[in-house]
Amino acid sequence: MNILILGATGRVGSQIVTYALHDKHNVSVLVRTPEKIQINNDNLTIIQGNVLNKDDIVRAMQGSDIVISALNTDGTTTLSESMTLIIEAMEKEGIKQIITIGTAGILQSRTTPNTLRYQSGESKRKSTWAAKEHHKVYDILKQSTLEWTIVCPTYLPDRERIGNYRIERSFLPEDGVEISVPDTAEFAFSQIKTSEYIKSRVGIAY
């Protein structure tokens, strides 16, 4: 499969690249700084560019079967601004499926019906900036024709892969406190092989 990975130099994105190459897929990454990719693999194509540049996105999309986005917020509106361009390019190229990394803040609240976690007292984070950006992306994806899945991890420490975790559609698993970067990446990558969570947010935690 030809996979385009966005956010490939980030913590989760770099792990997804590793899993995809290990499975012998053809992987393309669009990055601003190619030197940050320290992998030498014949199945890896590194494209220099910016997710906020429409031409760069279109160029990176060519020949791809699926898109995985591990872009994060970085305190800017890059996440939501780029998603509109990504969707346009996917529709132009006829690419149907996108898997993105979100945040547990945009899952449904268990305590306050019809409210997202970041809008309720459930979320312990003082700042809602990132959650609001991810919420925008969720709304943009819902309005698209794509087959999307948003993987929504809670606290993401840099611990080792455990390979055993709980997942729940639309909600964070009860009493879920954390999930490692490698386990989040593994679950997100596994979604290329299933349609179970198409058009869904998926909470993930130990």
Tags for this entry?
5 helices; 206 residues; single chain; globular; alpha/beta; 8 strands; Rossmann fold
Compute the number of strand runs.
8
What's the gyration radius in Å? 16 Å
CATH class, named Alpha Beta
> What sequence of helices (H) and strands (E) makes up the elements?
EHEEHEHEHEEHE
What is the second-level CATH architecture?
3-Layer(aba) Sandwich
State mean pLDDT (0 to 100 scale).
95
Describe the strand arrangement of the main beta sheet, using strand numbers.
3-2-1-4-5-6-8-7
* Largest pleated sheet: 8 strands, mixed
Describe, in plain words, how this protein is organized in 3D.
The structure is a single chain. By secondary structure, this protein is an alpha/beta fold. It has one domain (2-205): NAD(P)-binding Rossmann-like Domain (Rossmann fold), CATH 3.40.50. Helices cover 29% and strands 20% of the residues. The protein contains 5 helices and 8 strands, in the order βαββαβαβαββαβ. The protein has helices at 11-22, 54-61, 78-93, 129-142, 181-190; strands at 2-6, 26-31, 44-48, 66-69, 97-101, 147-153, 166-169, 200-205. The chain has an 8-stranded mixed beta sheet, sandwiched between helices. Helix 1 packs across helix 5 (181-190), helix 2 crosses helix 3 (78-93) and helix 3 (78-93) packs parallel to helix 4. The protein is globular. The two termini are 30 Å apart. The mean pLDDT is 95.
